[in-house]
Structures are given as C-alpha cells and as structure tokens.
Amino acid sequence: MARFGIEEEFVFLDDATLVPIGISDTDRESLADRASQGRVLAEYLTCQVECVTDPVDTLAEAGAQVRHLRGLVDEHATTRSAIAAASGTAFATTGSLTVVSAPHYDDVASHLAHITRGHEVNGLHVHVEIGDDEERVRALNRVRGWLPVLLALTGNSPFADGVDTRFASWRSVAIRRLPSSWSPPRFHDLDDYRSQVDRLIELHAIADAASLSWAARVSDRFPTLEVRVFDAQLHPDDTLFAAALTRAIAVTDDLRGSHVRIDQLDASLWTAARHGMHARLVDPASAAVSDARTLAGAMLDAVRPALEEHGDLAFVEDRIARIGSDGTGADRQRAAFGSDGVAGLGRLYRDGMHSSHDEH
C-alpha cells in the first residue's frame, strides 16, 4: 500500500468583506506549536498558512490529521473575527499583501516581480510515495493525461477581485503566468526529467527544482510523485477524494495517457478551469475529445482495482455521485453567494473548516 501525504493552503479573510488579512509571525508560530498531528507552516503571503499531514496509509488517518489541522486554523481565525477559507482564490483583494520574509520567498518574489501582486492563490498538493526513482517518472507520465479530469472534478475558485470570473478554477489561470506551469511534458526516464529541469534552471526560468510549477512533478525533497493541479478544497472530504484518486492513478501501472500532446493537455486544462464538469477534454486513452463526466467515469473504471485494494472505492464513488448532485466546490461557492451574498459565502467557508465526516 503506497503511503501518501497532503498539503493544504488556507487564506485568512476579513469576516465582513472576505478580503485577505495578514497574520503575524507570532500567530503563525503559535499555530505551529499547537499541532499534535502534522504541521502548520508559513506560505508565500502573510495572509496564508499551509497545513501538511504526516505520511499516512489510509484515508481515515489522513482525514484525522486534515480535520485536526483545519480545526486549529479555524479556531485561530474565529478568535480574531476572521475566516479561514479553503478556496483556490479569495473572494476579493486589496492587491497589497506582504510576502512572508524568508530567503526562498524573497527570491521568488524578486523573480516574479509584478506577478506577485496577483498571486493570491491556494492549492492542494498530494504526495504519493514511490520508492523507485524511475517508477516515479513513469507515474508522472501516467498521471499527466488525467490532470484535466482531476481539475474538472475539483475546481474551487470561481471568484476574484469581488466578481464571478465565470471560471471554475481561476487559480489555474493565475498559475498559468508562472514559468513551467500546467502540464509537464512526457519524459523518457529520470535522466530526461532531470535534464529538462536543469535546462529551465539554466534559462533562469526557475531558481531550482522546488520552484517548478507544473501541475504534477517529481518531488525534489521526498521520494514522491507530487500532484499539484488541485485548488484548495472546501471540505475535508473533497480533499480526501482528490488524494484517493491521485494515489490510485499513481499506482495503476497499465494506465494509458502518457503520449497525449502537451498542447492538447494544456488546452484541456484551460477548458477544465473554465467549465469544470461541463468541459470538453482530451481522452488520455484515445486522444479523442469527450466530455468531463464521461472521462471521470472512464478514470474511475481504470483505477477501480487500486481503489478497491486501498479500501477507497465506496468513498470515491460516493464523492463522484455528490459532485453530480451538489456540484463542484466552484458550483457550491456560487450557490452560497447567490443565496446570501458575502455572508453566505463566509458561512460555506467556515463550515468546511470545522465540519465532521460527510457534512456539507
């Protein structure tokens, strides 16, 4: 059974306006000290934190850590009349937020220049442990073809600058401005992967391998495949759904899709970001064009044995059914805002931070 880990990014918002607000180093350190499972870390901007689980074997273990960490972040926000939001983008912005003071972030901010002003994005990253170096690259080749389907299922950033962007994942559009973003190319082997990353560093497009912005990559810190296509997810079960699918794809060694052209994958990522589950996407098995719902079913069929082996099948099937009935995170955000404006959206964010299993 492959172990996995989860990284979730959250943004602190003013509870009346849903505009991002910064927190102090002292507050962030206090949060970190209270984590009894996993870790709370600084993120790029002072309005953000990142919560990281320890490596786990099961969704139950992951869920316990995710809920514990979310509870700490939610409690901290509540005591300061703020909201901690698990959304790919904040509802509104001042465009004047501060980068956390750290050598790496200072270098990133200097490199991105004006892009930093609009880079208020929050993601979900899933790491799947794969011990063999070459197998990690093969797993990356497998997962790349399914990245648009994964994004269509999990888009959760419909708002930016106080307006509906009409995108399911506006975060994906913001990420597109970064070097080495969206779909990775197909790699022949580990040497090919390393040489292509080295070329990006030589070009000064990125400072190091840790700065890669591909929607999936081989981790430079851990023996893992890291899938980064997801927006931050509203509800813990949304996060666990993304993690279960990621692990199943990573370990299903007969999955096809590694030969899909990068321009077609990037186009599919755009349509997934724009239309969510109503998108038209390239089928990674046939390279034909199909709809997101059909491809989600095909993906589920392809990874069913892995889901069964891990005990995740019933959970994943239930979540896909709920997306069919309740919509994606982006759909639920729009519904909450349409029902009661900023107040309704704020309640949706709060509910996702302190909810128990299977609540909405």
CATH domain class name: Alpha Beta
Terminal Cα separation, in Å?
A: 30 Å
What is the level-2 CATH architecture name? 2-Layer Sandwich
User: What shape does the CA trace take?
Assistant: globular
Instruction: Tell how many strands the DSSP assignment holds.
Output: 13
Mean pLDDT: 92
Question: Which class of secondary structure composition applies to the elements?
Answer: alpha+beta
SSE pattern, N- to C-terminal: EHEEHEHEHHEEHEHEEEHHEEHHH
Main sheet?
Answer: 7 strands, antiparallel
> According to CATH, what is the topology?
Creatine Kinase, Chain A, domain 2
Q: Report the uncertain regions.
A: 356-360
- Helical stretch tally: 12
Helix percent band? 40-55%
Fraction in beta strands: 15-25%
- The number of distinct structural domains comes to 1
Radius of gyration: 19 Å
What does this entry look like structurally?
- There is one protein chain.
- By secondary structure, the protein is of the alpha+beta class.
- The chain has a single domain, classed as Creatine Kinase, Chain A, domain 2.
- 47% of the residues lie in helices and 16% in strands.
- It is built from twelve helices and 13 strands.
- The protein has helices spanning 25-34, 59-79, 103-112, 133-144, 147-154, 170-175, 190-202, 236-251, 262-275, 292-310, 313-326, 329-353, and strands spanning 4-14, 39-42, 48-52, 82-85, 123-129, 159-160, 163-164, 181-182, 213-214, 216-218, 224-231, 280-282, 289-291.
- Strands 1, 2, 3, 4, 5, 10 and 11 form a seven-stranded antiparallel β-sheet that branches.
- Helix 2 (59-79) packs antiparallel against helix 8 (236-251), helix 5 runs parallel beside helix 9 and helix 10 (292-310) runs antiparallel to helix 11.
- Residues 356-360 have low confidence and may be disordered.
- Pfam families: GCS2 (PF04107).
- Its EC number is 6.3.2.2.
- ATP-dependent carboxylate-amine ligase which exhibits weak glutamate--cysteine ligase activity.
- Belongs to the glutamate--cysteine ligase type 2 family. YbdK subfamily.
- It comes from Microbacterium oxydans.
